[in-house]
Amino acid sequence: MQKILLAIFFFISMNISAQITNCSELFFSEYVEGWSQNKAIEVYNPTGNTIDLSNYAIERYANGATNSSAGGITNLRGMLASGDAFVLTNGETDTSSMFGYCDPILIALGDMAEPNGSYPSPLHMNGNDAMVLTKNGNVIDVIGRVGEDPASGAWTDDPASGFTLGTWWTMQHTLIRKQNVLSGDNNGLDLFDPSAEWDSLPVGTWGNLGSHTCNCLNTSNIEYNAQSPSYLLYPNPINHGKVINISSKVAIRNIIVKNMIGQVVINTADNFIITNDLEAGTYIINIRFSDGREADNKIIVE
């Protein structure tokens, strides 16, 4: 009994965090729980800066679990511009999979898909799994309630039952965060009333994925920085001889790679970099987009 109490105390201690300042941190903005493996989740950047997603992960606390060991963790990647949204989808394409598959149309709407055959992973979620967004291991947003397996199979809008009985919200629905929500819920243990911060849409609704409306960028809370669009650069670091891919919703005009003394070693109109001619080391990459914007990053060849 003493060990159990200590474990509970440790769990609670690890999950109590200071409230996040409005418009200062990423949060979940859309949740798609559909038929078969038609699953997606959207992360929104309400800040005035481009955010490096390599510090962030999405975790699934399955069926009332108090950790993500059975539900999986997906580490995010890429750069997310101010006011932009990043979409992660299930990546199952095998139509004979025992868990079903994800519609290719939905996968195409995403910025990143989990690997085919990656079960268990966060985007194998069902309506009774708490979805957790973390930054460097710290909880910054939660959909659902960690440690709770709602009796109805999903969280609901019924306060009498603690939001665990009645009409489903988190199963076979799409949820979109309300425009006036300015930060995530980083307390994974509080009651989860989906109707308080989310709007519910019918199952199979995907048309809003990839963008989000939030009052953070419609008020004077922050100054919008439109210098750099969102893009995905992977893998990084990379082994010598492999190919780095760069993708963005904004067309890429050309890419310039310089070594650490400023010499141009690659100048290409392709959206990939072949590292055969690069020595091991660190390089600066300048991505130039068709709308005139640019973005700089660092790549490491090993």
Q: Which structural category do the helix and sheet elements fall into?
A: mainly beta
Mean pLDDT: 88
Distance between the termini: 50 Å
Low-confidence stretches: 1-16, 219-227
Q: What is the count of DSSP helices, taking H or I runs of 4+ residues?
A: 3
Summarize the biggest pleated sheet. Answer: 6 strands, mixed
The percent range for helix content is under 10%
Report strand %: 25-35%
List the helices and strands and how they pair.
Layout: H1 2-15, E1 27-33, E2 39-44, E3 51-52, E4 56-61, E5 73-75, E6 79-80, E7 85-89, H2 104-108, E8 112-113, E9 130-135, E10 138-143, E11 173-177, H3 194-197, E12 198-202, E13 232-234, E14 243-247, E15 252-258, E16 264-268, E17 272-274, E18 281-289, E19 294-301
Parallel strand pairs: 7-8
Antiparallel strand pairs: 1-2, 1-11, 2-7, 3-6, 4-5, 4-9, 9-10, 11-12, 13-14, 14-17, 15-16, 15-18, 18-19
